[in-house]
């Protein structure tokens, strides 16, 4: 019903808008970062995350954590790293709380690898990534990957240059995965996920982290047919009906299927949707707590966009609603509000078998 991964050729009635979004360059090229001139040449300055412009560029003047607080957090994380297994086994609630507060940027790569167990996977497969790189790979996947490289965060300094080191490493990772899992091959939504990982760690580490995301965190999401994302779409819509009936009724009224808007959100883990500060906080929680975070963030977004009469007055049809969901304004959701809302405790809705625990994630904060 849904997709062939080869180019994501999908039913136009369901997925055309989503695929345009995944394949597009991000039509916000006019929104660029500040420039300066050095010896007559224009030099574009990046924001603190490496963005040169675009919708995820962060303006200066954001609230910064005080140096002494940031250093204190770093020391706490370094202490956890020394006895990681004990912390995860005996004090996981504390680990979770610190992930929700935000992992220090200097330690994010190590933390993501430890939380996902990809570090352990890498150590158990020493030399495997290089072995995969040496293999030729299937031409059909390599052609699609090659075409997708320039579409991943074109406003980020790491991927802005065609054929640059960022795009080369991205190609290496995605090609290696098609050889590592030939039964799955390549899915376009893997590219932005791999790109985010590369912003934080070397290619080999990013590869094993991608493997964990595909196999441990979001199993079946990137497989041909995408049955897993369809099933989770039904679960998500059911949860929406109970958490934000107003948004649910609006989407139901205009026959807006969850797969139309949640595919990019879930499969890309919001990396193409949210302001970058929010993206990193979501990924911190995701690596710690799993897929339930993706569901919670999706519900929070719909509540923010469609959860009041005033907001719905501006959205009088399917087209207006889809445009709003595909192009969520950075002003719609702030980092602190998002994290707070994601951490809110809800009642348990269903048992594990009937609704994937309804992500009984709502009973635990």
Automatic annotation (TrEMBL):
<dbReference type="InterPro" id="IPR050302">
    <property type="entry name" value="Rab_GAP_TBC_domain"/>
</dbReference>
<dbReference type="GO" id="GO:0031267">
    <property type="term" value="F:small GTPase binding"/>
</dbReference>
<dbReference type="Pfam" id="PF00566">
    <property type="entry name" value="RabGAP-TBC"/>
</dbReference>
<dbReference type="InterPro" id="IPR035969">
    <property type="entry name" value="Rab-GAP_TBC_sf"/>
</dbReference>
<dbReference type="GO" id="GO:0005096">
    <property type="term" value="F:GTPase activator activity"/>
</dbReference>
<keyword id="KW-0343">GTPase activation</keyword>
<protein>
    <recommendedName>
        <fullName>Rab-GAP TBC domain-containing protein</fullName>
    </recommendedName>
</protein>
<dbReference type="GO" id="GO:0005886">
    <property type="term" value="C:plasma membrane"/>
</dbReference>
<feature type="domain" description="Rab-GAP TBC">
    <location>
        <begin position="102"/>
        <end position="290"/>
    </location>
</feature>
<dbReference type="InterPro" id="IPR000195">
    <property type="entry name" value="Rab-GAP-TBC_dom"/>
</dbReference>
